Amino acid sequence: MQLQDKVAVVTGAASGLGLGSCRALAAAGARIVGFDRDADRLAALRDALGEQAMTAVVDVADEASVKAGIDQAMAAFGAVHVAVNCAGVADSAKTVSKGEPFPLTTWNKVIAVNLTGTFNIIRFAAVAMMRNAPDGDTGERGVIINTSSGAAWQGQVGQAAYAASKAGVMGLTLPVARDLAEHGIRVVSIAPGLFDTAMVAGLPPKVSQSIVDRMILYPNRMGRPDEFAALVRHIAENTYLNATTISVDAGARMQAR
Ligand SMILES: CC(=O)CC(=O)SCCNC(=O)CCNC(=O)[C@H](O)C(C)(C)COP(=O)(O)OP(=O)(O)OC[C@H]1O[C@@H](n2cnc3c(N)ncnc32)[C@H](O)[C@@H]1OP(=O)(O)O
Ligand SMILES: NC(=O)C1=CN([C@@H]2O[C@H](COP(=O)(O)OP(=O)(O)OC[C@H]3O[C@@H](n4cnc5c(N)ncnc54)[C@H](O)[C@@H]3O)[C@@H](O)[C@H]2O)C=CC1
Q1: What is the Å distance from ligand 1's center to 51 Cα?
Q2: Pick from 243, 246, 222: which is nearest to 233 by CA?
Q3: Ligand 1 pocket mutation, candidates 159, 207, 222, criterion most atoms within 8 A of CB
Q4: Residue 257: is its pLDDT beyond 80?
Q5: Whose atoms come closest to the Cα of 229: which ligand?
Q6: Which fold has domain 7-248?
Q7: What are the boundaries of each domain within the chain?
Q8: Where in the sequence numbering do the catalytic residues fall?
Q9: Is 8 exposed, middle or buried, given 0-12, 13-18 or 19+ CB atoms closer than 10 A?
Q10: 124 Cβ below 6 A of ligand 2
Q11: What is the pLDDT of residues 125-180, one digit of tens each?
């Protein structure tokens, strides 16, 4: 899809990989609709991108909030062509810790944001995309890009909920792509390794340091949000990519710890 003057909804837009995606898609000429639950940092995004962007405080886990956000995007820009799911949380705990079972509140939160939240955006964005006229050459109406994680295959100690949520994102990619193919809507997920964002800054330093020291092949460093965003842009622009999950991880392979 040519991104010039298209409309891209990005969740988790106030930080990290979502913010990087907003910048990259804006640089390609798209108008940006940034969703996040963090109102203050969304204002910074709007200030940075000016009239090319609008933002809305949206909780992706909440159906009514997502519907209202997509309605706002339609009212402001008249269409949705691209949806990028980056909102996510990484709360971790061991399955049993100090004799106590994994807190179900943590499980429910991680699944609600990472998995249900992704599907909420998919559902409402797809309805909006179906209103687009098909591209004259390709028949394309839209593209949905999800963020899974290397943890979907290789979750570490403490990542049961997170890994399950990200495996869920990977798992829904093919059936949703099949559901939406007849409408000219593609669905592709990205499985990042370790990227330098607020989420990773929140991990115990021992955890992130041991990944950088021992588990990343080459280049031996964390990824930068612009390196993730370059892949988002490529997926949006390359109409032949569909129904798959692409790793961007410098060859990282997680050990137990
Ligand atoms: C964000 C992405 O999408 C990409 C990724 O997933 S990259 C992978 C990110 N990994 C994680 O998020 C791991 C999550 N797990 C954890 O943070 C921790 O395991 C936990 C907080 C859940 C439990 O930690 P804990 O209660 O200290 O567990 P415990 O078994 O007692 O730990 C023993 C030791 O191993 C260390 N350890 C635990 N998990 C570790 C890990 N994954 N890597 C390195 N060291 C680890 C602990 O720091 C502790 O060290 P000390 O004894 O020196 O304090
Ligand atoms: N940073 C990394 O190494 C990796 C990140 N990921 C995934 O990439 C995505 C982006 O993560 P980062 O940019 O690293 O994290 P981040 O913490 O920098 O950004 C996540 C954003 O999501 C927002 N958010 C959280 N819950 C929300 C909700 N319910 N509704 C709306 N917004 C919400 C936060 O406010 C924040 O702005 C997440 O899905 C994460 O799981 C996957 C693999 C690796």
Answers
A1: 43
A2: 246
A3: 207
A4: no
A5: 2
A6: Rossmann fold (3.40.50)
A7: 7-248
A8: 162
A9: buried
A10: no
A11: 999 999 999 999 999 999 999 999 999 999 999 999 999 999 999 999 999 999 99
